[in-house]
Amino acid sequence: MPAVAVTRAEFGDVARLARVVAAAVFDLPVSAFLIPDEDDRRRVSAEAARLVYLWPALAGGIVWCTADRMAVAGWLRHNPGQAYEPHPQAAVELRRLVGRWYPRFQRLAEMLHEAHAPLLHLPHDRLSVLAVHPDRQHRGGGTALLAAYHEHLDAIGRPAYLDAAGPELVGFYARLGYTEIGEVIRLPNRVTLHPMWRPATPPADDAAPVDIEGREG
Question: Which domains does the chain have, with CATH numbers?
């Protein structure tokens, strides 16, 4: 399989990447928990992806995407005493957008925070979203995005955290160095999310430095 080129996303990429996230996560059980009505979910999913995933990652971390903008990974940086706080207007916009489903978004956010809280005293980066458009899945895009950023994290000795969106994804992340930690998050519709942690792996002595601010990965 040919190498997948990755690059840092910019604000001008948000609309397109939001549509990618919406398409990638539409059928996930956690999406069905958030918005059970498929018509409602289809109507708001791209804008919800912008508000929940992409804008926060651009403001409080970094977003990487494949060169064709068909896969995206958003990361949030967590440092003790410097937690990223979403702009209050984002919650207002999300409430207006999803209407009656907003309490479900609140509940999920609370449960994710509870699972993540024991690690907030440790500097690390959190994967807030990894999404590959259905037309590009199983071609290495998601793996390439994670591998590129992991190389950067390893170079600076920084761990990573994520919540795997179901048991079927635990093995995928385990192959990339993550292990399950803490308690499984159980949603009311029996969906489970799995907190996972990846310690930094020291790079080889002859490894080239990674330019995370650059355009090529």
Answer: 6-198 (3.40.630.30)
